[in-house]
Amino acid sequence: MEQFQKSNSQKLLKHKAVQEHFLEQLFFFMKKKLFFILGTFFSLFYVQAQSFPQIPSLESRDFLFSQYQQEVQQCQKDFFKSNTSVPTFYSYKAKKGDTIFTVAARCSVWQEALSTANSIENSAELLEGKTIVLPSANGLFIPESPATSIEFLLASEHKERIFQGAFAKYKINGRLFYFIPGERFSPAERAYFLNPGMSMPLEKSILTSDYGKRQSPITGRWQFHKGIDLAAPEGTTVFACKTGTVKSVERGNRIYGNYIIISHAGGMESTYAHLSEILVEEGEAVSTGQKIGKVGTTGLSTGPHLHFEIKQNGSSLNPGKYLK
Q1: Which end of the chain has the smaller Cβ count within 10 Å, N or C?
Q2: 3-state secondary structure string, 90-157?
Q3: What pLDDT, on the 0 to 100 scale, is given for residue 13?
Q4: CA–CA dist 278, 177 (Å, integer)
Q5: What is the pLDDT, as a whole number, of residue 44?
Q6: Of residues 208 and 37, which shows the higher confidence score?
Q7: pTM
Q8: CATH class held by domain 206-321
């Protein structure tokens, strides 16, 4: 009997030890799991709350800028070797006179990388006083959730590649972006970025002939119409659609009559034809909305109207896509 009690007591002690060991292991596992969950939570919070190292000035004597430049060079070498690169990020508070072009040139990165990483919609956007992100790698940052016109354009253009490819995602200013290394703007994206919108050349008008193939109201033959016709009373004021420089002023042309050509940034030009009066001179700088002429019916015309054209590097574009 005494031996039985002793054996039973040993079993109970052993069982208790096993229980205690199990509870210790369970507690240790739960503690590890808890720390992992908390660690993950705080890590995510930290990633969302952190700010990129801020470069005081874009000068070689600045230590951070010099470090950033080294990383830019390394990313360029990586892309040359393997057709891919992993960007690091810095920040910089833009100063007076800074533009997307001057900052890109100073940093030795493409304007596409800077503009898409910072959700900059067009080249005319003012940067002074804004804190902008400086990526070290060249390419396009495509937002997961587009918010601006050019972002929708980019997302539409690259959606198949993003769906098929394993592109890295980065969180910038609270938004998620896919990064496509080495990618540049398409001609359409570049044209939109450089010239996001043009003002109407007339306050009130009626569209009588659209851009594209049409039957000529004069010859009756089918031909391509390289602009749009806007009917308005003779003498109606014509305005410059965008800031630029008057490239050409001509009077008495057999087809266009009296007309003006204005050069804009990015290789874009606008033409205003059949004018009754011209109010500017060749070489004159003009601003958006400035009076440049008056509607007429000079040249090959069936009535008072403005023939309006837009060209990009010599190729005609549909003005309807750019006017606002």
Answers
A1: N
A2: EEEECCCCCCHHHHHHHHCCCHHHHHHHCCCCCCCCCCCCCEEEEECCCEEEEECCCCCHHHHHHHHH
A3: 47
A4: 49
A5: 34
A6: 208
A7: 0.52
A8: mainly beta
